[in-house]
Amino acid sequence: MATSKEQVQTTQAAGRTWMDVKSGGSNAIPEGLWLRCPQCGQMIYRKQMEANLHVCPECEHHFRISASERVRQLTDPESFEPMFTELRCADPLSFVDRKPYAARLVDEQRRTGEHEAIKAGRAFIKGRAAMLCCMDLTFMMGSMGSVVGETITRSIEAAIDQNLPLIIVSCSGGARMQESGLSLMQMAKTSAALARLDDAGGLFISVLTDPTTGGVTASFAMLGDVILAEPKALIGFAGPRVIKQTIRQDLPEGFQRSEFLQDAGLVDRVVHRRDMRSEVSRVIDYAGK
Amino acid sequence: MALPHVLECEKPLHELERKIQALESLTSNDADQSALDAARAEYAEALAHLYANLSPWDIVRVARHPKRPQTRDYIRLICKDFCELHGDRRFGDDPALITGFARIGSMRVMIVGHHKGADTNDKIACHFGCAHPEGYRKALAKMRLAEKFGLPIVTLVDTPGAFPGLGAEQRGQAEAIAVNMLEMSRMKTPIVSIVIGEGGSGGALGIAVADRVAMLEYAYYSVISPEGCAAILWKEANSETNSAAAKALKLTAKDNLELGIVDDVITEPVGGAHRDPAAMGRTLEQWITDRLRELNRFKPANLPARRYERFRKLGSYLEVEPTPEPSEDAAAPSPAPPAPETDATTPRAAQGNGAAARKPRTRSSEPAPAGN
């Protein structure tokens, strides 16, 4: 595809991150050369943090990153070939809340320069061919609507057809409300497709990053043959606020974080971002894929 | 006749009911009798009119009506025998999800259904129909049993959502639901699901990946509750925003039928299932037996492929020509009006030709005029 090369350049040139686009709120990172780490409170030099895979050099806090940055970090240089980029959201419900969904989408597309909350394609990871999907938190909180669900399903089917290991990096607020029932059905669709991959003996490595919640956790994200998680990522079905309201008591320290899930037996390994590439390829090797 | 629980929308009816009761209490002479008949006719008409014109938010409230029949009621009404099976053999027994062998007509089936609870204690034990991971795992274990012995599975969905709590998260609520969907999609036995009341998000879908899915007329099925949606998108949940969210979410049976999410809408008795549970039970039984008879014609081994296709086509999106992307500058952090100019217009274009865009099943290879 003629676009692939340009796309690769785009992703490399972008270097745009979650912090660049999120404005306002307590987690906001000020623009500029220096920024304050939300975890340890230290002032850190932005370039140093970026060179460190967007991890705080002082306290190992993993900053949230965009799908393009994730692709860049995980794959061999120039190897990522984007696929299914022709899919576009259709606003099936003509959804309007305080603002029409159609207008919201246009704004998000304009702001992020992306079409949807996911990037998918073939790539090499330390020389091993794989199908890779990266969700994009910068686009509507990485929520899953029809396009995200369809992209993931097609990626699963491609992994079956081409006998490739499948890697999905999740970060999402859950199913996209603006497509209501159809978003919900993407959970069933992607899970059913993973049943086929399983039947075909395919390998699926699910990588959970901060935050993975709701309908995404309750479908493909928790269905990995092997589930890896970045340190201290928020991973759960219900959001902490909802749980707190329901049970009316304070939540324990570290609740719903990767380490908590590993202790609960729900995540296989908590993996530092700098080791993710090698851990993924290690698992691919063990599965003999 | 009078219901202890009066819905906001039923208030005018309630007055008529009281009038009828008053007339009934003094009856005996003929003049009163004709007045009573007139009042009853007026009531019947008002009831039918009201229920034919319920707003989505009213439907949500009917779906949550405390007198609405629940899974245990339907089991009593429909099944000739019910052999309840408890527990997930791993952690415990969740009363919010009932499972067991049952006989419907001449058929042996496995019943799986949410249960909200009959009285206050029961409701608390059932967490008001919000199941825990052990509930979903129990459901899966019993469905596997059904598959092993060639029994079809009937699931009755009625939950506000899976339980959001400490223990539920610790024991893997998300994993339990996800695994259920995956395994249900490849079960080699017929599965039918009916949303009988509330179809709350993943908690509902965790037992609803079926060959045929139906909704009762005044049930709802949605990705989030109207209150939850209003709280997030409208920033506050009050009666006005709840109502707006209920409308926007397209959560009624009719809407879900149009979106292709359910295959059938099962008509309820006039005034809702809670006014005549027996009649509702008969209609429901008829639908179940009809669909199972239909599905029995397929070889069990062929069912998963058909079920996959059913869910595979759900979703609505456009496919544009892969444009040679001039999006380099678009990806730069500066919010310059980017190449997605084309895409920006695409959803609008889709909206323009309404019919095409709203048909959810179509993978419309929309020419996307602006894109070319």
Shape of chain B: globular
| Distance between the ends of chain A | 25 Å
Count of folded domains of chain A: 1
Output the number of helix runs of chain A: 11
Largest interface: A-B, 89 and 85 residues
The major beta sheet of chain A can be summarized as: 7 strands, mixed
Derived from helix and strand composition plus strand pairing, the structural class of chain A reads alpha/beta
Q: Return the CATH class of chain A.
A: Alpha Beta
Proportion of helical residues of chain B: 40-55%
Shape of chain A: globular
The oligomerization state is: heterodimer
| CA gyration radius of chain A, whole angstroms | 18 Å
Give an overview of the whole structure.
- The complex is a heterodimer of chains A (289) and B (372).
- By secondary structure, chain A is an alpha/beta fold.
- Chain A has a single domain, classed as 2-enoyl-CoA Hydratase, Chain A, domain 1 (Alpha-Beta Complex).
- In chain A, 37% of the residues lie in helices and 17% in strands.
- In chain A, strands 3-5-6-7-8-9-10 form a seven-stranded mixed sheet, with helices on both faces.
- In chain A, strand 6 (128-135), helix 6 (146-161) and strand 7 (166-172) form a beta-alpha-beta unit.
- In chain A, helix 6 (146-161) runs parallel beside helix 7 (180-199).
- The longest helix of chain A has 20 residues, at 180-199.
- Chain A is globular, with a radius of gyration of 18 Å.
- The two termini of chain A are 25 Å apart.
- In chain A, 56% of the residues are buried.
- Mean pLDDT of chain A is 89; it is low at 1-13 and 22-28.
- The longest helix of chain B is centred in the first third of the chain and has 23 residues, at 30-52.
- Chain B is 47% helix and 14% strand.
- Chain B is globular and about 65 Å long.
- In chain B, helix 9 links the parallel strand 5 and strand 6.
- In chain B, strands 1, 2, 3, 4, 5, 6, 7 and 8 form an eight-stranded mixed sheet that branches.
- Chain B has 372 residues and is an alpha/beta fold.
- Chain B folds into two domains: 11-53; 61-312, 2-enoyl-CoA Hydratase, Chain A, domain 1 (Alpha-Beta Complex), CATH 3.90.226.
- Strand 4 of chain A pairs antiparallel with strand 9 of chain B.
